[in-house]
Amino acid sequence: MNIETIKKERDGWLFWKNIAPLRESIEKISPQNNLVKFENGSVVIDSEIGELGIQIAKSMKPWRKGPFKFRDVTIDAEWNSNIKYSILLPHLDIKNKIVGDIGCNNGYYMFRMLELEPKIIIGFDPVPLCKIQFDFIDRFIGSAKNGKIIFELLGVEHLSIYGQKFDLLLCLGVIYHRSDPVATLKNLKSALKNNGTLILDTFYIEGDDEVALFPNERYAKMNNVYFLPTIPALRNWAKRAKFKEFEVIATVDANSDEQRKTEWMDSESLEDFLDPNDQNKTVEGYQAPKRVFVKLK
């Protein structure tokens, strides 16, 4: 199946019975092209959204990435994504470059990167709700209309047939959801230009051995987490995928400043995933989540 056929099929997902009403509600909002600023980690949109807009935004819960701040309301998402963005920012030399965000969620990082003046940003995420949330925010910004951001309902597996080479790819919080991490890295590498860069973030486990944890059924209540490598094992994965350079940017522990319940995401969050008697362990008894950020070339 070619990429255009896949894209057309996935556009049909926006007509699912649980998604179509959200898509139709966005169309009630007049398209705008507001000034966007970035203050205290928020994407700040110089507009009021009014009671209707607030109702529409709340109907799209849960909001995972943010925050987004309007004049009259702040969408305080589960993840304070500015913390991760602050780690990435020193490595985002993207002026006039082609950037891809794999697993872009609702587009928070893409909107943040607008200030760095890339040529274009293309986000990939196969979750219709993420596309709808992106469309809601962008209704007030107009980045898709002016060609600065494209959102594709596609996954990392489509990169090799997408037909675009990237100067920089972000792949944040994706690889541990894939059952074949080396194949995933190969797909990412296939979409990079010569001397292109991949910035990857993933769960990892501590240790000097070249091994990975393969959880039994669930990790932190997630049933789609497959491999948590040590950093040496992650380096070996990158080498198997034919990356030439491997640089650790940062390692961080999960914490409630970055991930927590809010009125915009009121289901379970980090506090529910950890052992109440030992915050260094998940409820299943594994090491509590730690993340490593690496830059590959």
Structure keywords:
Rossmann fold, seven-stranded mixed β-sheet, globular, four-stranded mixed β-sheet, alpha/beta, 297 residues, 17 strands
Counting helices, strands and paired strands, the structural category is alpha/beta
User: Low-confidence parts lasting 5 or more residues at pLDDT below 50?
Assistant: none
CATH topology: Rossmann fold
| Global Rg | 19 Å
Walk me through this protein's architecture:
The chain has 297 residues and is an alpha/beta fold. The chain contains ten helices and 17 strands. β8, α6 (128-141) and β9 (149-152) form a beta-alpha-beta unit. The longest helix is centred in the middle third of the chain and has 14 residues, at 128-141. The radius of gyration is 19 Å and the shape is globular. The chain starts with a helix and ends with a strand. The mean pLDDT is 97.
How do the strands and helices of this protein lay out in sequence?
Layout lengths: L2 H9 L8 H7 L9 E4 L2 E4 L4 H10 L5 E2 L1 E2 L4 E2 L3 E2 L1 H7 L9 E5 L5 H6 L6 E5 L3 H14 L7 E4 L6 H4 L3 E7 L8 H10 L1 E12 L8 E2 L14 E2 L1 H10 L5 E8 L16 H4 E2 L2 E5 L7 E7 L1
Parallel strand pairs: 2-4, 3-6, 7-8, 7-10, 8-9, 10-11
Antiparallel strand pairs: 1-2, 4-5, 11-17, 12-13, 14-17, 15-16
